[in-house]
């Protein structure tokens, strides 16, 4: 545990960074802009959780709850080899060609090989530089094709300043180390990034100087869109006591996550799952789980006038050494039909799973339970000046927040995080849960997070999961956190 004074915590953070470096085989004396990550399977940080089963959304109607990214560009350049040897049909050569211009598509969908591993022995640096303002990369499917940094390099670094779109592939095993700008372990962009139907995994951003690392999985200077995609098992950390932010993603602009998973990531600074600087965040039918950070284990939103909307989503099992296991926002928060449970901090203070200091907090039909720290349950906290509007929620332990009389304060009775259908992991409610038929559907939503009908029975269930016959038949007890409600 990381308790005590800031000096002690900084010392322990430094020790943790050195330990991580040793475990990953990183050279801590890395040259600026170079990478020395091992070729091991990569880090898995955070509390134990199952790996998401990634598959198509169960219905076209459910898919319609997400927003379209618009038509695909029609000028393709076809990659015909998995070799990273600068041959005319290679990915690197096509991107570098003067014939490839802004808004073109790089088509990798016809490849029959499974992996393109960037060759660090013949390319210095080994990452693929993208100088077009806008570029679109189209693969044959996640898990079908992987673009790998090979454990020694970042994968894509987009300097064009407008948009990089990645569709239907896996980006993995990337790492970027620098003493000046250690940003983007696998993917870096000076503009915006759209990731669709893809996985980003096992990435490292490592700071060796006075600047902390940002965005191990993805660093976007502007906006980031995650659509039916995941960012997992990545780490942002540093050689010394300089904080590193955004273990999964670091977003300089707005974040939109739809049917997305951000899980098992680590940051030695703020936001183990995501660190977002922009004014608008929208999270729909997504899961943020088992991320770890020194501050704000799951999500951190730093714009004091920003707004975050989280709908039909699950935030579970995230941990912070100090402050707010689930999320902390300096702006406003609207949480609708969502489940926020079993997030923890290890500080001696009374920080909550969710902390809000902005102008407003709106809670609709959501479960917030089993969160807390050393001093016991602490699910929800808001600043006294925050305007709170709430209805039909289950919140076990709130402080600084006045909730209406219809708020349920009993434990929700949940199954562990699991594959219950749909695109992301969820926590099913038990047939005896007080959340059944006591919620509402204010938007309204057609489906719950799993793709099941949003309202079955007398009324909508509270939380992201709608109970149905045949689920949650046996009571599962989750212990290990003294004083917190048993889920």
Question: Secondary-structure map with pairings?
Answer:
Layout: H1 6-24, H2 60-63, E1 76-78, H3 91-96, E2 104-107, E3 115-117, E4 128-130, E5 134-138, E6 146-148, E7 156-158, E8 163-167, E9 170-172, E10 175-178, E11 187-189, E12 192-196, E13 199-201, E14 204-207, E15 218-220, E16 224-227, E17 230-232, E18 235-238, E19 249-251, E20 255-258, E21 261-263, E22 266-270, E23 274-276, E24 280-284, E25 287-289, E26 292-295, E27 299-301, E28 307-311, E29 314-316, E30 319-322, E31 327-329, E32 332-336, E33 339-341, E34 344-345, E35 354-356, E36 360-364, E37 367-369, E38 372-373, E39 376-377, E40 380-382, E41 387-391, E42 394-395, E43 398-399
Parallel strand pairs: 1-2, 2-5, 3-6, 4-7, 5-8, 6-9, 7-11, 8-12, 9-13, 10-14, 11-15, 12-16, 13-17, 14-18, 15-19, 16-20, 17-21, 18-22, 19-23, 20-24, 21-25, 22-26, 23-27, 24-28, 25-29, 26-30, 27-31, 28-32, 29-33, 30-34, 31-35, 32-36, 33-37, 35-40, 36-41, 37-42, 40-43
Antiparallel strand pairs: 38-39
């Amino acid at each position: 545990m990381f308790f005590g004074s800031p000096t002690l915590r900084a010392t322990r953070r430094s020790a943790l960074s050195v330990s991580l470096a040793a475990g990953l085989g990183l050279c801590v004396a890395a040259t600026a802009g170079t990478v020395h990550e091992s070729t091991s399977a990569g880090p898995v940080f955070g509390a134990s959780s199952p790996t998401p089963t990634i598959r198509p959304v169960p219905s076209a109607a459910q898919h319609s709850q997400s927003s379209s990214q618009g038509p695909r560009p029609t000028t393709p350049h076809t990659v015909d080899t998995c070799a990273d040897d600068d041959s005319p049909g290679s990915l690197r050569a096509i991107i570098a060609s003067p014939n490839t211009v802004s808004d073109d598509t790089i088509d990798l969908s016809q490849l029959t090989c499974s992996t393109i591993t960037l060759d660090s022995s013949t390319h210095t640096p080994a990452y693929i530089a993208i100088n077009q303002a806008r570029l679109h990369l189209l693969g044959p499917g996640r898990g079908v094709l992987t673009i790998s940094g090979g454990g020694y390099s970042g994968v894509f670094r987009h300097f064009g300043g407008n948009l990089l779109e990645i569709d239907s592939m896996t980006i993995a095993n990337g790492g970027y180390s620098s003493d000046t700008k250690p940003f983007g372990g696998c993917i870096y962009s000076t503009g915006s990034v759209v990731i669709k139907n893809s996985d980003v995994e096992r990435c490292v951003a490592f700071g060796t100087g006075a600047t902390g690392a940002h965005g191990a999985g993805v660093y976007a200077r502007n906006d980031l869109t995650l659509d039916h995609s995941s960012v997992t098992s990545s780490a942002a950390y540093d050689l010394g006591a300089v904080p590193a932010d955004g273990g999964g993603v670091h977003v300089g602009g707005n974040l939109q996550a739809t049917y997305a998973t951000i899980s098992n990531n680590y940051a030695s600074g703020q936001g183990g799952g995501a660190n977002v600087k922009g004014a608008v965040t929208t999270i729909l039918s997504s899961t943020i789980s088992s991320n770890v950070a020194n501050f704000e284990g799951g999500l951190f939103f730093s714009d004091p006038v920003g707004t975050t909307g989280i709908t039909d989503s699950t935030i579970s099992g995230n941990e912070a050494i100090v402050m707010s296991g689930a999320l902390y926002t300096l702006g406003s928060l609207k949480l609708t039909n969502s489940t926020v449970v079993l997030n923890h901090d290890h500080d001696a203070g009374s920080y909550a799973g969710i902390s809000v200091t902005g102008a407003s907090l709106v809670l609709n039909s959501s479960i917030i339970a089993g969160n807390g720290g050393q001093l016991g349950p602490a699910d929800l906290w808001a600043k006294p000046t925050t305007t709170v509007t709430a209805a039909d929620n289950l919140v076990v332990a709130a402080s600084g927040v006045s909730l209406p009389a219809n708020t349920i304060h009993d434990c929700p009775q949940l199954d562990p995080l699991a594959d219950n259908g749909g695109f992301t992991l969820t926590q099913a409610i038990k047939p005896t849960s007080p959340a059944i038929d006591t919620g509402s559907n204010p938007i309204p939503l057609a489906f719950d997070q799993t793709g099941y009908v949003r309202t079955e029975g007398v009324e909508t269930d509270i939380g992201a999961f709608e109970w149905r016959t045949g689920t949650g038949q046996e009571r599962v007890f989750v212990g290990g956190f003294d004083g917190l409600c048993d889920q």
